[in-house]
């Protein structure tokens, strides 16, 4: 008989009689039952402390169960931590989960302001470097002195629920077709979705065998896309036919153990030099000539040996500059004309893993990084002093595992190069529901411009991509894709089309997800609020899924 858990807040003693001559097989069954993960309701209950006391009863050994209130984080009595309804309670014995500083909890964190939700800029650093004056005279005129009004996509226009069989890992808009969105997932599939027609979608599963980490369109052919995957391959796929070829394979002999398995993460294209750049989990940079699709040169060590290089970004104005970031807590600037190990132009130090690093999309003079220490860092000029960032923005995007890393990205349409978008990890209590908003932040001062959410999207949204030409935001939450538009434009489209379409995919995702328990993640198994009991693709009116937006005046 398995042990009984009592949920009362008092400390009762429960005596359970057990036969001392029970077989070993029954004991093994009890151990297996105890190893099962706790359900959500059991996790909310108080921790259980079991003390076994032997008595001298005839042939029986009673079990005494004592229930005591202990913290789930530090295992100490007298307090509790974790989610209580829609509110997260920090352990007072640990540092603040938001700013990582001791002495207070997340709820009382000085960086957690109601209107800004944990976003606070550091003081702006004013350097008097002569190079700064060159920047002001030659490059600053490209940036308009007056910021245009921000246009925020704040309402879900259409969605595909459970589109992928595993969680979404990356998104990319088509360079010429405004309504085509590409998405990669943890299983190695690449999806092509025409969100203007909603139902026109396809998924290619023959390109990679495991997670797709990055995708880039070919600069010479809009129908071809490069992809980097954890299977150690760079794929080159025709989106019209779905046929794919492998340009780089770092594991030609297959699986030889974890110490030799190569995985590709960072990916970008240098059009001026005709190179496809890919970085692996051993700190190496690989180069492919995209004109001949052949590997060129030898791999170059650009980060600490044995560390993942998770991001690559080529400067849009100065093609000889390359920005990389990795698990060695650094973002590094390189000169493509003299790529040599240990000869980076600048090393931007961080306190924890750097998830992403990007040059600003227009002038290429700013740098935006996202780190696991819950900081978004901004450098206003790559020609000035880069020893410390111009601003540090406290933002909740640290996570444990089973989640795609959060990456703050620029708005490519913003001529002032200040608006960024990033998902939030810590949930907020919105009318009793725990929702994870998507934040729009002004990187010039660190202020929260807007936070967008939908009451039906209860999962975390770590993957977000702003359209380079339209006022559209694409989001990947768990296995689903969402398209956001400004509320005014959404209403105009609704008047024309009379309905907003949401497609729900069944069967393939659920069946395949159950077979892959070994690598399953928690968020993939979350049930979306859009779900239905029917087993076919359906479309529904979205009047009941009205979005919520909080905007700072």
From TrEMBL:
Domain of life of the organism in this record? Eukaryota
Cross-referenced InterPro entries, in alphabetical order?
DDB2, WD40/YVTN_repeat-like_dom_sf, WD40_repeat_dom_sf, WD40_rpt
SMART domains cross-referenced by the UniProt entry: WD40 (SM00320)
Keywords per UniProt:
DNA damage, DNA repair, DNA-binding, Metal-binding, Nucleus, Repeat, Ubl conjugation pathway, WD repeat, Zinc, Zinc-finger
Q: Which GO terms describe its biological process?
A: DNA repair; response to UV
The terms describing its cellular component in GO are:
Cul4-RING E3 ubiquitin ligase complex; nucleus
Primary residence = nucleus
Q: Where does this protein have compositionally biased stretches of type Acidic residues? A: 24-45
Q: Which GO terms describe its molecular function?
A: damaged DNA binding; zinc ion binding
The subcellular localization recorded is: Nucleus
The record's region (Disordered) falls at 1-46, 504-553
* UniProt biased composition (Basic and acidic residues): 9-21
PANTHER family linked: DAMAGE-SPECIFIC DNA BINDING PROTEIN 2, DNA DAMAGE-BINDING PROTEIN 2
Q: Which family does it belong to?
A: Belongs to the WD repeat DDB2/WDR76 family.
By what name is this protein known?
UV-damaged DNA-binding protein 2
Source organism of this protein record: Raphanus sativus (Radish)
